[in-house]
């Protein structure tokens, strides 16, 4: 077990202290223990007390951290958290008003942190890792492609274990900071070489990069820090989407580690278009075949519509093979504008050998047209 710190005792306040009380108490303790103000002999002790006071203040003034502390008696990696908070405070605001406005703020920082202001920017815990992405695929039929489709996807994803708050340790408390790397998760070694200093950073082998040593694994997640949870998300696939497009839903993937962001959900969209149509951008190509005599004399064809039903298309007399006709606005909507493309009907012409009676009549036609007939 990590040593339980009593932040309330450190600030000499009651558990029900108001934020104003906490601030007052904090100022009082800072006056007492600040290395510049401390008059006693045990400078080391004062420095430690001052650290504790800052840590207590940082936790008790952050509603989330305070709630966690009240519940579990421990808050994440308080050491690094505290350093960040301190750096912010030293940047102005509270410290300015307490220490008389700006003057000496840098000095205080330098005295206390050994002149290494840059330290506050250094990463103090293991590197945040983005959660894994999740991939799904859905198929739209032609009608859905034209109308757009609202889909609800339901899947299991990894979320931070609520029993251990992602620490992997029983109750979120049963771990201590890795002594080898001091919680950073990696080891940086500096060697002096003939060419200057060489810095080598490697993952800490004691803790495997997590920065902590778990004493009792969380029973809910078996120490993984994450559990599976069913997740539902609704999304509208826009009308007119291209076959094979991918839709990204940010943050709907697996939970990250060490404060890393969630992964994404990627939905790959397939469109299932009936064989009689070929998609060409937002138009649908359709072939219709008519008898030659129909093409000569004029006819009408029924063209199937994407939403069902048919539309009658008039084929005028004298239509040639391959001639195309447009059924305006019966195609696929543009994803951007919603304006629909057309159905483009291309006419095939079937020619067949005439029967005896047909031949007789056709020869009459041929002579009218002065056609050259060779049998
Ligand atoms: Zn857990
Ligand atoms: Zn370590």
Structural notes for this entry:
By secondary structure, the protein is an alpha+beta fold. It has four domains: 7-121, Helix Hairpins; 125-170 and 222-272, Urease metallochaperone UreE, N-terminal domain (HSP40/DNAj peptide-binding domain), CATH 2.60.260; 175-214, no CATH class; 277-368, Urease metallochaperone UreE, N-terminal domain (HSP40/DNAj peptide-binding domain, Sandwich), CATH 2.60.260. The chain has ten helices and 15 strands. The chain has helices at 7-11, 19-33, 43-60, 63-72, 78-90, 94-98, 105-113, 142-147, 292-297, 356-368, and strands spanning 134-141, 149-160, 175-177, 186-193, 196-203, 212-214, 226-237, 245-249, 265-272, 277-280, 283-291, 299-304, 310-315, 324-327, 343-350. Strands 10-11-15-14 form a four-stranded mixed beta sheet. A three-stranded mixed beta sheet has the order 1-9-8. Strands 2-7 form a two-stranded antiparallel sheet. Strand 4 (186-193) and strand 5 form a beta hairpin. Helix 2 (19-33) packs antiparallel against helix 3 and helix 3 crosses helix 5 (78-90). The radius of gyration is 38 Å and the shape is rod-shaped. It starts with 6 loop residues before the first helix and ends in a 7-residue tail after the last helix. Mean pLDDT is 82; it is low at 77-123. The site of one zinc ion has 8 residues, from loops.
């Amino acid at each position: 077990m990590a040593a339980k710190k009593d932040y309330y005792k450190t600030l000499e306040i009651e558990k029900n202290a108001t934020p104003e009380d906490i601030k007052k108490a904090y100022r009082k303790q800072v006056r007492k223990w600040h290395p510049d103000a401390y008059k006693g002999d045990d400078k080391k002790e004062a420095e430690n007390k001052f650290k504790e006071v800052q840590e207590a203040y940082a936790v008790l003034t952050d509603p989330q951290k305070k709630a966690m502390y009240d519940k579990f008696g421990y808050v994440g990696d308080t050491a690094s958290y505290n350093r960040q908070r301190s750096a912010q405070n030293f940047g102005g605001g509270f410290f300015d008003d307490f220490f008389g406005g700006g003057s000496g703020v840098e000095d205080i920082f330098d005295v206390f942190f050994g002149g290494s202001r840059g330290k506050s920017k250094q990463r103090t815990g293991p590197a945040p890792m983005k959660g894994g992405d999740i991939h799904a695929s859905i198929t739209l039929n032609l009608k859905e492609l034209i109308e757009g489709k609202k889909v609800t996807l339901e899947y299991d994803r990894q979320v931070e274990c609520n029993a251990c708050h992602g620490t992997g340790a029983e109750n979120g408390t049963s771990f201590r900071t890795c002594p080898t790397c001091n919680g950073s998760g990696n080891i940086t070694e500096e060697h002096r070489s003939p060419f200057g200093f060489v810095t080598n950073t490697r993952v800490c082998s004691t803790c495997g990069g997590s920065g902590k040593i778990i004493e009792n694994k969380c029973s809910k997640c078996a120490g993984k820090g994450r559990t599976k949870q069913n997740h539902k998300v609704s999304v509208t696939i826009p009308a007119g989407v291209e076959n094979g497009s991918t839709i990204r839903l940010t943050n709907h993937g697996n939970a990250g580690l060490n404060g890393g962001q969630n992964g994404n959900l990627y939905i790959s969209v397939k469109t299932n278009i009936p064989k009689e149509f070929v998609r060409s951008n937002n138009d649908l190509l359709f072939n219709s075949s008519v008898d030659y005599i129909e093409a000569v004399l004029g006819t009408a064809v029924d063209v199937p519509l994407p939403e069902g039903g048919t539309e009658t298309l008039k084929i005028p007399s004298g239509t040639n093979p391959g001639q195309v006709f447009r059924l305006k606005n019966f195609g696929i909507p543009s994803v951007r504008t919603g304006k629909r493309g057309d159905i483009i009907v291309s006419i095939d012409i079937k020619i067949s050998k005439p029967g005896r009676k047909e031949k007789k009549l056709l020869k009459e036609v041929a002579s009218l047209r002065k056609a050259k007939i060779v049998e």
